[in-house]
């Protein structure tokens, strides 16, 4: 059991990120001071929303520069002026398309970054708890992995054993990083480790960046990319604000422990399109059918889907058990229809989706 002192600053790594920005906002709204690490304090495109938060909460948000690949890079942010008790470690590269060198682009920053942050915590006696942003990708790699599980219901007991550098490298990066985190956590007794394992995160962004994987997915649902049909794929979805709240609850719930699957609903891409159509009617060219598997094999590679990926994921259903997150953290979930609508409204305001009715 770890009681975290709310008068001490909390460190959030990867502070400019989609999830981390909401975590920071919620902490500030609760009156908690925040130290956020960013790669560069002069990259105004990435951090302007943090500067706005800093203006809204004067003296409560401090930025530190740190890079996952530089050993000791987080030490100062952890140890400075008496140090932090709570670290929320979100920083890790999140992209699925266009990976050229998986070791360098995904695994090294995920794994070395986690090792760096946790080793620095070991050198800082103030640290009592670390909340790591892992992923359901560390629970299972391909949908077909659920076939060996009763009811195809994936829980915190399960681990991804099928991803590798060449097949599903992003899930692999999250798996090796989380495994290493538990190994380091078990080698000491100064701080405890909790993980948040979100499914695919959607919903409004606090930053003005438009290059994220979630934004790309939502754009492709409404911009006609899948107008002739979507792959028959299932995926878990969750609101970014629920994911952020899960991190804050994990930090400040003294008895909370372990891994936490954080996912609101599991839907096929076609179900997701239906949810959007129910709200927006014919406003967008949303997909109305699922592609037969043979067609997915034919055109999938043009959308970045490899044949092994298609064979292990298309047409395979599974469920994610979110009951532990509700019980251990007291988390409640927004309906995913609300999340989609607010996400799309933000894209409409930013003129990032087709303007006219089709
Ligand atoms: P994001 O906006 O891309 O955030 C990733 C953060 O990691 C960014 O702040 C990025 O910094 C930072 N980062 C990447 N490489 C770094 C490096 N070498 N040194 C320092 N910082 C580095 O994506 P996100 O969705 O918020 O992801 C946050 C965490 O959630 C990640 O651990 C991701 O794996 C996990 N997650 C995300 C989802 C999802 O659907 N979004 C689902 C499950 C788990 P810059 O701002 O400088 O690029």
Descriptive overview:
This protein has helices spanning 18-29, 44-56, 75-79, 102-122, 169-186, 213-222, 240-252, 269-280, 293-299, 307-313, 323-329, 336-349, and strands spanning 10-13, 34-38, 61-65, 86-89, 129-133, 153-154, 192-198, 200-202, 234-239, 258-262, 265-268, 319-320. With 358 residues, it is an alpha/beta fold. It has one domain: Rossmann fold. Strand 1 (10-13), helix 1 and strand 2 (34-38) form a beta-alpha-beta unit. Helix 1 (18-29) crosses helix 7 and helix 4 (102-122) runs parallel beside helix 5. The model has no long low-confidence stretch (mean pLDDT 94). NADP nicotinamide-adenine-dinucleotide phosphate binds at residues 14, 16-20, 39, 46, 67-69, 90-94, 109, 133, 135, 174, 198, 200-201, 212, 214.
Average pLDDT value?
94
Proportion of residues in β-strands: 5-15%
Q: Please count the beta strands (DSSP E, at least 2 residues each).
A: 12
Describe the main β-sheet briefly.
7 strands, parallel
CATH homology-level superfamily? NAD(P)-binding Rossmann-like Domain
Q: Which class in CATH terms?
A: Alpha Beta
Give the count of helical stretches. Answer: 12
Ligand species? NADP nicotinamide-adenine-dinucleotide phosphate
Q: What share of the residues lie within helices?
A: 25-40%
Shape field: globular
Order of SSEs, N→C? EHEHEHEHEEHEEHEHEEHHHEHH
